[in-house]
Amino acid sequence: MDVVGLIPSFGGVIYTVVAFVVALSVIVAVHEYGHYIVGRWSGIHAEVFSLGFGPVIYSRTDKRGTKWQIAILPFGGFVKFLGDSDAASGKDAAQMSEMDTVARRRTMHGAPLWARAATVAAGPVFNFILSILVFGAVLFARGNAVEPLTIGMMKPLPEQSRTLEPGDQILAMNGQEIVDFEGFYAVTGALPIGGTIEYSVLRNGSTRIIEGPYPFPPLIDGLQAGSAAMDVGLSVGDVITGIDGTAITAFSELQTRVAASEGAALLLDVWRAGEEMQFALAPRKVDLPKAEGGFETRWLIGMTGGLAFVPATETPGVFEALSYGANQTLFIAESSLSGLYHMITGAISSCNLRGPIGIAETSGAAASQGLASFIWFIAVLSTAVGLLNLLPIPVLDGGHLVFHAYEAITGKPPSDKALRVLMGIGLTLMLSLMVFALTNDLFCP
Prior knowledge:
Layout: H1 3-41, E1 46-61, E2 67-81, H2 93-97, H3 101-105, H4 113-142, E3 144-145, E4 151-154, E5 169-173, E6 176-177, H5 181-190, E7 197-203, E8 206-212, E9 222-223, H6 228-231, E10 239-243, E11 246-247, H7 251-260, E12 266-272, E13 275-281, E14 284-289, E15 295-300, E16 303-304, E17 309-311, E18 313-314, H8 318-344, H9 356-368, H10 371-389, H11 397-410, H12 416-443
Antiparallel strand pairs: 1-2, 3-18, 4-17, 5-6, 5-7, 7-8, 9-16, 10-11, 10-12, 12-13, 14-15
């Protein structure tokens, strides 16, 4: 056996596992801290806050009597409140029977309904808050493009015209006036593809007519984790100069050729920092959410295009950044629910549901693109975890909230026997879902 030859592959697996554990640990810690802190605020005492399961490798007890621990299996976590029999918040009937009224009030099972419901809901809510803050922080760091459109920096392109410069304010292209970004995109859609474009720019207080590159060259501005493009080694900043021997000069030409391929392999000519390269890859069929709802199936290679230049930016306000974060989180949640519905009805492939292996691979791919991409992935996954936990399935937070709603309507909680049966059903459903998702990881393309 060629042991040395296995080292790069083994190293890639370790990198993927570490990225997955880090992402999951952050999300679980935030989720469980939501339960813990709202429970504490509500007068419910937490006995144990655990990150991970199994044998404990580190622990300490704080002044409130809560044991904070890290366990050896880093695939989840829990908060065990006073009066719980286990990490799943089952009732310890023997312990509860020995408590007086004051002590029972400090348990999850003896606290008022509002306190229990708030504590349960806090986990998913904190996941959503994490997503909103991360998405908002990304926009805050990246900034909004200023209007009128101004060049911040030119991107490296093959045979690039150097006539456009940072600070140039674009007034018109090929004689068509540009007032704002909407107008810029409208004008770009009417431009001839190929060759140079005549730009009218404001530079140092005077107007100049100069030549520059097509605004949307076949430049890779972003890569989707785990996509065909990433799998073959394409990188952000690469420029696709040709497909199967035919030259292209615009990203739209690349999109057209990929869509028409019907999955057939393509040979891409690529320019990377002055070096000519070739990559062969086959587009993959992907179900994409539509802005108006529903899904469409397209052939994709997993890359996004961008402008030939980086626009000058300005820092958005805090409210604008948070609003962007909230909208992004809402879009992911809506798309996830829509995807689940369409999978159940058979409108899209059930292979869209991925399990731990698929999520781990995506974690590693996102981390390989840099810290910003990895943090963005954590925010996306945090939204998905929060949404999953709100499903009305016993053993999940959503199931507990259903029990609390039943109690609010009837005036009494479900019986302990009914809870045990329902929790068993819920656990069976979740295990079945995990097995199904794992099967998808192993056998779906």
